[in-house]
Structures are given as structure tokens and as C-alpha cells.
């Protein structure tokens, strides 16, 4: 696969260089023709030869450009075939970094793989005393598509998912979401200044720029919502209107796309535009202090990026979406110390996460036409097409490294294992070829 990728890159570079050289030749020849037409007999005699060479250079440049476009189409096909082989729903685990004040509270975690790309995690459970007085600790082993230890950085994490983000520019629906208990590092991974959301959008801008020479132009629109107490709020709207404005989830069965009514959509023409809406969304998101975390997210947030591409050479269009989801943390009511409004929030959070588990469990049964309980929560209904087979989906299970959080960590990892064993079918990309205009 590495050799194939290298061959693509080498061919693409060589073809691009050829096009640049030929375009330079065309420019030079045009200048010389202009000079030759100035009146000299000798110049006139060589005009026909120069014109012939000019036309040949133009034809060669066009052939090279067509070759480059065909190579890009082949790259897209082969690239997404490789992604399918890796699995349409993938699960990765990240153990959050350890703070200096926590070094004496760390649980016993092991990473059995010796390979650079670790895929296994082993956790020793709490001490248990047998009837004979013997103290034992049960070892729990887990295996995922990738395991990131506490010392891993957001750059390393994104390096592993960047290829999945690429699929969105190729016309696929892509969904990446973080799951885990409160304080396990979900928001740091997704929405921090160097998190997955800003990194993903930066990569998409770079890809769109690089594809311009192959005839592609892209437009991007972003929206940001939260699911709070089974209600949808527009995080790019006015927070004062949250209780007044109702948003409904609707699905386009034909296009396999989700629409949220009354949602503000922002044109994203630069990375700065993304940073701006991230700040606005963060300011509007529902957070509160609990015993589990000083600033606990009380809602699930979903960043939705729509990418529409058009190729002026092949007349092809593509439409992909990238959904980046930061799930609210699961909490046990006793541990969170939730009361009143906080208790209601916690109950709704746990209910929607439970519904997510039910949906994935139903999908895992693999029964065509069987009932999938998407409507049991706003979260699962919103993510219906991200979970139900028309999307490339990646789940990050976030784990706390602390001994005090062992029970919740094990619960999260067992749920992630359930997801990892689920097959949701093959994603389909949204592309079509437009009719060319007959105007000459």
C-alpha cells in the first residue's frame, strides 16, 4: 500500500511538473509569435513552423491535464477501497494525559503491544478479597483499531484519522465522535485549539487548494448544534433564543442526508472563519460544575461541515459531510452529586448514551429491515445516517488513567468493544456528472 501511495504521489508530481513546463513553453511561444508578426520577411517565413509548435504544445498540455484528472479519480477509488478494508466503523481508545497532581492516583495500565501502533490495553481492576482472605486484581484486556497512551499528542491522534477526513472531500459522509466519562478528555481532543475540529478543517482547506489544478473547486458550510435535555440548540445562534426557538430533525431518505430546521449555516471560506464559530459555539454550550468535573459539558455537541465539490474538467460533482461529535460525559448520579437541574441533565445525558448503545446493538445484529430505535433519543435520531451504514464512522473512547475512575473506565471500554464488533455496511459516496451545456 505504501508503494502504491508513493507511486501515485510520484506520478502526480511528474504530471504537474510536465503541465507547468508545457504552459511555460506556450507562454514563450506566444511571445515569439507576436514578435515574428512585426513585419520582417525572415520572421514571416518561420511563422508557420512556430504556430505548429505552439499548437502541439497546447495539445500536449491538454493531454497531460486529462491524465492528471484520471489519476486523481483512480486515487479516490483505491484510497476509499483501502478505508473500507480497515472497517466502516472503527474504534480507537485514548487514555488522557496525567496531571502532576494525579501521579499518585494512577491506575495500573499496560500497553502489551511492542509495535509503534499500539492496539491493546490492559487494566488491572480494583483489589478484591476472597473468602479465604486472598487479595487479587482481575486483569481486563481490550483490543481496538488503535490505542493512544497518555503521552500521545493531538497531532499524533489526528495523524491516524486524517485519511478518514480525506474521504469527506471525496464525497462521503464521515462521522467522528468521542465517548467517555466526564473529565476523560473528550473536549480537549475534539474542540481545543489544536483538536480534531480545527485540524480537520485545516486539512480540508489544504486538500481543496491542491485539487484546484485538477479542476476541482469546493464550497464549505458549517453549522454547530447541541443536544441539551432532549432539545436541539443552535450554537451559532443567540443563546437567549434557545428556549424560544424549536429545531426539528428531518431526514432526506433519497439523499440519505439530515436536515435540522431553522439552523444557521455559515460559509467557511478560511480557517479563521472556523476558529470564529468554534469560539462562539464554546461560549454558548451548556456547561456546569459537578463533583466529577469543574466544567462538565451538559450537552452533546455536533459540528457539521458540508463540502460541495465541482470539477470543471470532468463535469463531476461531489457532496460530502463531516460530522464531529463531542458527547457529554456519562456520570453516575451518586458520584456527580447532581441535584435539581443538574440531576435532570445527568439523567438525560445517560438516557441518550444508553439509546446510542441500543442503536449500535441493533445494528450489530445485522438484520436487514429490522427495527433500529433511532427515535428513542434526539441524539441518535440526529446521527441516524452517521450510524446506519451510509457513513464512515470513527469512535474515540476516552479513558481516565485514575484508579478512582476504574468502574466508569471499564464501562466505557466495554461499550467501545461492543461498537468495535459492529458492522454497519458499506458507505456510499455522493457524486454525479452534470449535463454539459450545449452553448458553444
TrEMBL record:
It comes from the Eukaryota. Pfam families: Kinesin. ATP binds at residues 180-187. One of its GO terms (biological process) is microtubule-based movement. Residues 88-422 form the Kinesin motor domain. InterPro entries: Kinesin-like_fam, Kinesin_motor_CS, Kinesin_motor_dom, Kinesin_motor_dom_sf, P-loop_NTPase. Keywords: ATP-binding, Coiled coil, Cytoplasm, Cytoskeleton, Microtubule, Motor protein, Nucleotide-binding. SUPFAM superfamilies: P-loop containing nucleoside triphosphate hydrolases. CDD domains: KISc_C_terminal. It is found in: Cytoplasm, Cytoskeleton. One of its GO terms (molecular function) is microtubule binding. Gene3D superfamilies: Kinesin motor domain. GO terms for cellular component: microtubule. Transmembrane segments: none annotated. Belongs to the TRAFAC class myosin-kinesin ATPase superfamily. Kinesin family. KIN-14 subfamily. This is Kinesin-like protein. It comes from Lachnellula subtilissima. The gene is klpA_0.
